[in-house]
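Here is my example:
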Amino acid sequence: MGSGAYQKIAKQALTAMALGSGLLLGACAAPAYVSPVEVTRFAAPAAALGSGTITLRPAPGTDESLEWGIYRAAVATELERLGYRVVPDMGAQVALVGLQEALLEAGRERGPVSVGGGGSVGSWGSGVGLGVGINLNSLAGPPADRIERLLSVSIRSSDAPANLWEGRASFTASTDSDFAEDAPAAGRAAAALFRGFPGTSGETIEVE
């Protein structure tokens, strides 16, 4: 066999190796993952919503952390868009803002690590623990670390304990996605939560 034939065989072998490596890398590199936002809301009949002054506070069991402040700002933006005037205190209505964040590392089957705080904001009607029990184990996604965030808000009169409106919005994103950081995640969750406000009471929707 001449040297030209050997060179041809070697070139073909190198090409096959390169193609194989590319396929292997393509199989290992999963794309960034972002789920739809799941939104559930409840509203009291004939509730006075969407106008007047409102004050934002942490929901019971929620730490007033830097992360919470980012979500508070996103909620405030949406409330002002709806027609409320957000004031630091003594608002005619109060919005209790809860936040939970949980990290599930790639390859882990159990035991998500909580990186935020949360508390139930429901006081009527829902039968759903808003802000409790994030379970990442059943979520489908690529083999990458994932973050699930749950934003919960309840609105009530400042002089009455019963909720006029309550809702939650949750979604999952891989840590290599555009929504890995709190600021874009907060904007996405808050916008979905208040889309079509007050929404159909008791209905769960998905917002892309």
